[in-house]
Every structure is written in structure tokens, then in C-alpha cells.
Amino acid sequence: MTVSPSPAAAPFDPAAILPDDLLERFRTRAAAHDRDNTFPEDDLAELRERGYLAILVPADLGGAGLDLAAASVLQQRLATAAPATALAINMHLIWTGVAKLLADRGIDDLRFVQTGAVAGEVFAFGISEAGNDLVLFGSDTEAAPTGDGGYAFTGTKIFTTLSPVWTQLGLHGLDTTSPDAPRMVFAFLSRDETDAGRVRIRDDWDTVGMRGTQSRTTELHGARAAADRVVRRLEPGPQPDPLVFGIFAVFELLIASVYTGIARRAIDVAVATAHRRTSKKTGATYSQDPDIRWRVAEMGIAYDGLPPQLAAIAHDIDARTDHGARWFALLSGLKHRAVTTAKQIVDEAILVAGGASYFSGSELGRLYRDVLAGMFHPSDPESAHATSATAWLGPVEK
Fold this sequence. Notes:
By secondary structure, this protein is α+β, with helices and mostly antiparallel strands. The protein is about 50% helix and about 15% strand. It is built from 13 helices and eight strands.
């Protein structure tokens, strides 16, 4: 079963792609995956069957032909049911989103990502490295030329989401031996490299929250990317290549979307609890208590600013709006606001719901732990503030 393309024929309806009954199944499973520290295999199977892995692939290639604005709405909706599932699928959608962004600009370098997604392949994100605050602009992973246009990668990647199921791993490394070195190399590895022993995945994902993502550590021991899977060789450091912009833009947008979805679910749970709980003192439901009403209002006011911001940034990416050097501040700021606002909203929701939310089996207790993961995704608070300061004040003088 595939998602029907939506463009001009009918208005986009997120519930047609992610219906309520599907989300309720995901929500029920989420508690078990969090408790047992397991990957949501059944969620992935249902999403794959519905064509969700290819929502950003053009219709003429077999996908749904949706834009990033629609994907953002869908990821917000998915996160209301199963944040870890949404975050895991995010990493696949980042690559299909980058492929779309490049194709929209006449660059077909990631066509294999689009056709692979339609065929059911799962693309993972192998960029994060311990202590590497350069992120896209540098790497501690060695990328050694193999002589045939391919590369062998040696190093360690952390937070490799989708570890149990990915079929292709998009990653980067540093080539220090070629005549034009140094060069940042972006490429994709096949799961076959795990069978060859050149990719080893540690079973080390035992975290406070977002346990279902199974974002395990990945060791690379001369793992080989074929020549036709090497997509860029770039000078290290900030530069305007569309691939780098695409990764940053789609990553920040979709990460912000997931945490916005968590915020929405926290409000919904808090509201339902306020209507259900009754005060022994007054006999009225907590929804009539002025302090509770103030807290819910605070949550609503904070939340209401997020979806329009996501929609505006997604529209500008889709429309190829030229924000010039402002783009990185806009994107990192969006992610930072979404994560910090979501955390604030979950905090308030727990105060509305009361002591029951402190138990590990509580949905709000799980959301409280899941939302903490947001601070570890690039851009972190320090990077977001440094980027914004540079945009407004100019670079630090040396």
C-alpha cells in the first residue's frame, strides 16, 4: 500500500496518512518500547506499508510527492503518539528531504536515496561524533581513498539512530591523503559492511528517554563506500555547498517538528487530566481552578507560536527563498525555540497532572524524559546563540 500523492487534487490531510487508529496503536506500543528498551519494529513495518518512507519522494518516482511543509506537519502528528518512532523516522526523512531539496535545485546526486526509499530501504544518519562540535564542517573519522573512486571509513559515530534496521548509512569523514587534501567526504555505506565486519554496532543504547530510537554507537573499521555512493568532497569548514545546506536545513526543521509534536501531546494530556481530576476542597474539576487554567493558558500561548514558525521556514525551504547568510541563524533558532518551548510545556503539564505523572508508567513521565533528548541534537544552545549573535553583531574580532 502506498500513500496517494496529494498535490492539486485535494487538500493535504495529515489524518489520511496517519489516521487516529494507527497513532493509537503506536501510542500503546510506545510505553512498552520505552520500558523494554526496544526498537519499534511494528511501527516501522506499518509506516513502510503505508509508503511513509517515501512521502518526500516525487510521485513520478513512486513516492507521495509531498513537500517539507507537509512532512513537518506529519512528523508533529506522529510525535504526539510515539516520540521515539517519530525521531527515528526523522533520520531517514532527513536524507529523503535533502534529496528533494537538491532535486528541486536541479541537482540529482541523491536520486538513489529517492528510489531506495520507494523500494523500502531505510537511510540512517551517521554524522555525530563524540567531542566533534564542528559537526558537518569537520570529522574525526578517517576517509581513505580506495583507488577506484570509493572510500574506506575508520572511526566512531555516536547517536546512530535506526541502528537495528538501517540498510544505508549516510556519513562523513576526512580525507587527509589525496593530493587536494584535506577534503570532507560525504558518502553512503551498505548494511553489507556489517556482515563483512567493517561496521560494528554496539548494543549500548540505555538512556533516560527516546529509548525506542536505538541510537547506538557505530564503529567503522575500513568500512567501504563505493564510488557511486560518494556524493561530495568538500573543503572542511563552513561553505555554501547545497548538500551541507540541505542537511542542516532539513535536520533542524524536522527535529523541531518532533519536539513540537511532543509539546502538543503534553497539552492534550494535561487538558484531559484537568477535566478528569476533581478538587476535594471545592468539588469542582481542576479545569475550573484558576491556577490550573493559568498554567494551561501558559502552555497554549507558548505552543501556538511553534506551528506557524515551522510552516513559514518549511515554506521558505520549499520555495527556495534566499535568506542568504541569515539561513543558519533562522534554522538553528527554530530548533532551539522548539526544544526549549517543548520542555517548558512538558514541565507545566506535569504540574497540572500532579503526582501521578512522576511514575515511570505515566505518559507524561515518559514525555518528560523524551523531551530531554532535544538539547543533545545540533544545534545545541551554545551553537544556536553563537550563530544568532554572528548574524546580528557580525563575527567575533580576532
